[in-house]
Amino acid sequence: MKRVKITVLKTTLDEELAREYGVEGLTACPMLREGQVFYADYAKPEGLCDEAWKAIYQYVFALAHGAGEELFYYGDWIRRKGVAICSCNDGLRPVIFKLEATQEESRIDYTPVR
Length: 114
Prior knowledge:
By secondary structure, the protein is an alpha+beta fold. 19% of the residues lie in helices and 26% in strands. The two termini are 22 Å apart. It comes from Candidatus Flavonifractor intestinipullorum. This is TIGR04076 family protein.
């Protein structure tokens, strides 16, 4: 299994939807910043939002297991091998991520909880 590089490409705010549905003073995601980088394989990286992880982990898992050798979804989505562009599931202020397969081997650097 390989590690996957996760880069925060963009933090956004849909101002129209935020005006209609959001709380007063809602801003783009306060937890992540553009350019921030994480590395993952089968476990959520420390500091990455739990909800964002839930939205992207299946792509991370696929890339970690070799999906990066081919284009995702038969080549009708992303034109670069080993790359997926995904977002978290916050409908008012989604964060856009770039996931990249690496050649770095995974290693367990924590003690699993049983």
